Amino acid sequence: MTESFVDPQQLIIGGERRFAVQVERLLGLLRYTDIVNIDGSGDVGGDLLGTIAGQQWVFQAKWQKKGSVPANAVDEVSAAMDHYRADRGVVVTNVRPSRDAISRAQVLARTGQRIDFWNGVDLQQLWEQAPCHPARIRLRSYQSDAVAALVDDLDTEGRALLVLATGLGKTVVGGEVIAHHLSLDSEADILVVAHTKDLVAQLERAMWRHLPKTVKTQVLTGDEKPKDLRGVTFATVASALNVALAGYRPSLVMIDETHHVGEDGQYGRLLGELSEVSQFGVTATPWRGDSYDIENHFGAASYKLGIGDGMRLGYLAQVDYRLFLDNIDWEVVKDVSHRSYSMKELNTRLFLPQRDEAIVDELAEAWRSTLDPRAIVFCQTKEHAERMAELLRRSPEWRRAQAVHDGLKIRERQLRLLDFRSGRVPILTAVDILNEGVDVPDVNIICFARVTHSRRIFVQQLGRGLRLREGKHKVIALDFVSDLRRVAALLNLRRQTNAEEIEVISHVPQPHITFSNAKVESLLEQWILDAADLETANDDVRLQFIDPDLPAS
């Protein structure tokens, strides 16, 4: 496919909604870095930010069916330059600037503020000048092995599965598998499916670095319904199912966050409809809430690397994990061997409520001991997240603390995440909104504020802090435990990272998991040894423990 994605006709077809997205992709090809899409209400006149040659640029994307761009577009860019402290500004349009707009830019130039225009002809020329392929990605050795394993299983079985812990680059591996497929057939149509619109949009952006500029991409959701699905299509499952039922047949399907695939439902129908098509899935957490095993569809994992192994090999940040268990009700402990409690009943009785103020005190101590601290506090509910954010804002260092949850409008969530990535907001409180598909590599403190344990969600949330960056070597995890399954998960992780199953890199420090109360640690270790598979037990599973030999109080 040799047609430019900024071809004038393509820009007309894509409309206003897609224009800023296409410009964003072009900036990546032109080697701009730190590109952020800020398009939306409250963007202060800017749609895109990017950095090149040490200078910050702000772009205003103005799409029109006809006519020319008015002078107020220049004023909007000027305001955005002031707000974002940008060095350069650009009005990007598929048409042409008006004479008034050009005159206004000339006036501002005399004050030292340079604002350029990129019109439709300029965009096409920039696309032609850009390299055909984005900058080459240097894969880690395990990523190369994973790509080879997936390609081999796709070739022989038509199905493949990748299980890679958060922070190890499952999207990078998936992108390289797609790139390999396109290297064999540049005209191939490929479908990438995710379960939310936000993830679909993020995946499209993440995949650009793996695709030649000649391959078109588009988003297919309930809001966006392109007629031309050539190239790589990123879709929600319902929209993908609709076009598959209408006859769309890609040559390769990638399912992101594959743990959402069940035996029934829309994923099952989609994969069944495309049963003759090669399919692969990627996930960090292969466990589902029901008994369905995703290997039933995709086969045994083609490649697998978990959190424990990732830390032992030095590919993930090391964890200083601190469990706070001073809230045990010892009267319940004495009674537990004589009663058959369900998991939910035991958690309710065993763990006394902890005050939010006590959590903040421990968080402050970790904050003071961390260089350039950035934190996420995971909370029980949206109300709890808002309450914790308000409590944090009482401290001067956290006066900009914000809550992020699905009760906010999408644009407001995006702005808060942008402020967090930029460092303007140093700490976020959240519920489950940051579990999947959000890349926040600067996090070095994770706090679990009395959250209910789910093996899948725990791995996702801990993974928010495990990505490495320059100068970051460890993440501090503060866990105010309210669920026995969480203790089981951590003891399993400690055993994993102390095992001898794989080579340990000699210079990499191993994870440090500590209990605030040694008496509690001894008790719970004994209990957990007595209860097989406790980490994944359901709330209604009834537990029977032997009478522990308790140390003296």
From TrEMBL:
In terms of Pfam families, this protein maps to: Helicase_C, Mrr_cat, ResIII
- What's a GO biological-process term for it? DNA restriction-modification system
Its domain of life? Bacteria
Annotated ranges, domain Helicase ATP-binding: 151-304
What are the alphabetically sorted keywords of the record? ATP-binding, Helicase, Hydrolase, Nucleotide-binding
- Could you state one GO cellular component term attached to this entry? cytosol
| InterPro entries documented for this protein | Helicase/UvrB_N, Helicase_ATP-bd, Helicase_C-like, Helicase_Restrict-Modif_Enz, P-loop_NTPase, Restrct_endonuc-II-like, Restrct_endonuc_IV_Mrr, tRNA_endonuc-like_dom_sf
S-adenosyl-L-methionine keyword on record: no
Q: Which SMART domains match?
A: DEXDc (SM00487), HELICc (SM00490)
Record-annotated Helicase C-terminal domain positions: 359-506
Read off the PROSITE patterns from this record. HELICASE_ATP_BIND_1, HELICASE_CTER
Give the molecular function GO annotations: ATP binding; DNA binding; endonuclease activity; helicase activity; hydrolase activity
UniProt-recorded name of the protein: Superfamily II DNA or RNA helicase
Taxonomic classification: Bacteria, Bacillati, Actinomycetota, Actinomycetes, Mycobacteriales
